[in-house]
Amino acid sequence: MILSLLLIPALGFLIFCLLLSSSSNKLYVNIKKLTPKLSPPSLGCLISFYKNRHRLLSWYTELLSESENQTIVVHRLGAPRTVVTANPDNVEYMLKTNFANFPKGKPFTELLGDFLGLGIFNVDGEMWSVQRKLASHEFSTKSLREFVVQVLRDEVAARLIPILENAAEDNGVLDMQEMLRRFAFDTICKVSLGMDPSCLDMSRPAPPLSSAFDAASELSAMRGAAPVFAVWKLKRALNVGPEKDLKDAVRTVRGCVDEMIRCKKETMAAGGGGGGGGGDLLSRFLGAGMESEMVRDMVISFLMAGRDTTSAALTWLFWLLTWHRDAERRAVEEIGDGYGGSCGRELGFDDLKEMNFVKACLCETMRLYPPVVWDSKHAARDDVLPDGTPVFRGNRVTYFPYGMGRMEALWGKDRLRFRPDRWLDDAGAVKMVSPYKFPVFQAGPRVCLGKEMAFIQMKYVVASVLARFELVPVRPEPPVFVPQLTAYMAGGFSVRVRRRGGVM
C-alpha cells in the first residue's frame, strides 16, 4: 500500500526495499531520462529508497513532476501493482468517468474495517449507495447548517476564545494544534452525536471516547506500516501487540456510541417518536429508521472524517499566516468587514459566505498541505487511464493531492509559494477550480458531503481568532509535515498569543 511508504520506520524501509529487489519486482517510472537512476532495479531501488527514506513525499513529487504524464508505477512483493498519479485527467476518470471500475476495494476496507465497520467511508456498492443517499439529504438541509453554526458559536465563545484570552494574559506557550484538535472533536461530537465531550475544558481529563478514538486511529494507520500485510493479520488472529490494543480501543469507541444510541432512542421515544430528538446527525439517522449498527458505523465514520481534517488545515493556515503577514492583514480586514467593525457581533452564515479571501487562504493551505495526502482505489476490471497507463484487475490506483499541489504543470512556476490570490478572479470572487486538479475533498459521486460544513467551521474559527488575536510561533524553524490517516504538524504548533493591536 502506498500509505505504507510514508509510515514504515527505518528497519521497515530496509525490509521493504529488499522485497522490492527480488528479480520479479521493481519500481519504475515511465519516463526515459529517469531509467538510469533506478537501473538495475535490484540495486537502484534499494539505494534510492534508502537515500530518500526521510523525504518520501518530496521524492514521489519529484518523480511525478519529471514524468511526461505525471504518473508512475510501483511493483513490490506481496502487494498489488500500484499506479500513482498526479494527472487530473486520470483523477477524473477514476473518480467520475469510470467510477464503477474503481471502488475502494477489499485491501483498503480491510485496513479500516475493524474500526469503521460498515460505515459510509469504508464500503462500496449498494451499501454505500443507501448510506450516501440518506446522508446527502441530511447534509443539504438548512436546519443542519443552522445547527452547525450554533454549535460553532457556543464552542468558540465559551471555550476557544477564553483559552486564547488566558494565554494572552499569561504570556504562556500554547500548542495551537492540540487546541484545534480538541475544538474539532468537541464540535464534531456535538454535530454527529448531540453530546459534548468537553475536550477543550482543560480542567477535566480526556473522556474515554476521545482517548479510544485517538488510539484506534493511530493503530489502524499502523497496519499500513507493516512491511507485509500478513504481519498485522497474524497479530490480529493471535490477539497480540498493537492488534490487541486496537481491538480494545474499538470496543471502547463502539461501546460509547452504542450507549449514546440507546439513550437517544429513549429520548426520542419519550418525545413521541418520529424524526425528533435533536438537530444532530444521530437523531436524524435514527429518525429515518436506520438500524442501530449501521447508524453507529456511519457516525464513527463522520467523527473520523470531521475530527482531524479541519484542525490540520487550520493549524497549517495559522502557521502560514505567521510567515505571510500581508496575507494575514488582508484576511483581518475582510473579517472586520464581516463583523461590521466589531468582533462583539455574532457571525452568521451569510457573513461567512462573503469571506472570499479567507476561503482563498484555506484553499491555498490545503493545496500545499492537504489533510489527506493520497487516496487509493482498486480496479475491478482491466482498464486504461486517459494518459495511456494500463491498469489491470486488482491494481491499486492512487491519486496524490500533496504532489498535485506541487506540479508546475498544474500551478505554474510559483507553485511552492503561498499565494491566495491564485484562487481569486479580478473581482475578488473565488474562482471555480476543477476538483480533479484540487481533489482534497475527493470528487465525483464520492465527493465529500461535509465540504461546505468544513468551510463554514474553518472560516468561523479563522474569523473568530484573527479578529482578536495574533499568533507568534515559538520555534523559528519550519515544522515537519507528517502524513498518517490525517496529516499533522510534528511536535505541535507552539505559539504565544497577543491581542490584536496590543502589545505582548
How do you describe this structure in short?
By secondary structure, this protein is α+β, with helices and mostly antiparallel strands. A five-stranded mixed β-sheet has the order 1-2-3-8-5, with helices on both faces. It has a three-stranded antiparallel β-sheet with strand order 4-12-9. A two-stranded antiparallel sheet has the order 6-7.
What would you say this structure looks like, in words?
This protein is an alpha+beta fold and 504 residues long. Helix content is 54%, strand content 8%. It has helices at residues 4-7, 10-20, 41-51, 56-66, 88-97, 106-116, 125-139, 142-170, 176-192, 208-223, 229-238, 241-270, 281-287, 292-323, 325-338, 349-353, 356-368, 401-404, 408-411, 451-466, and strands at 27-28, 71-74, 82-85, 173-175, 375-378, 383-384, 390-391, 396-399, 469-473, 481-482, 488-489, 494-499. A 5-stranded mixed beta sheet has the order 1-2-3-8-5, sandwiched between helices. It has a 3-stranded antiparallel beta sheet with strand order 4-12-9. It has a two-stranded antiparallel sheet with strand order 6-7. α11 packs across α12, α12 crosses α13 (281-287) and α14 crosses α17. Residues 1-44 have low confidence and may be disordered.
Give the tags.
504 residues, single chain, alpha+beta, 8% strand
Strand and helix map with partners:
Elements: H1 4-7, H2 10-20, E1 27-28, H3 41-51, H4 56-66, E2 71-74, E3 82-85, H5 88-97, H6 106-116, H7 125-139, H8 142-170, E4 173-175, H9 176-192, H10 208-223, H11 229-238, H12 241-270, H13 281-287, H14 292-323, H15 325-338, H16 349-353, H17 356-368, E5 375-378, E6 383-384, E7 390-391, E8 396-399, H18 401-404, H19 408-411, H20 451-466, E9 469-473, E10 481-482, E11 488-489, E12 494-499
Parallel strand pairs: 3-8
Antiparallel strand pairs: 1-2, 2-3, 4-12, 5-8, 6-7, 9-12, 10-11
Helix pairs in contact: 2-3, 6-10, 8-9, 8-20, 9-14, 10-12, 11-12, 12-13, 12-14, 13-14, 14-17, 14-20, 15-17
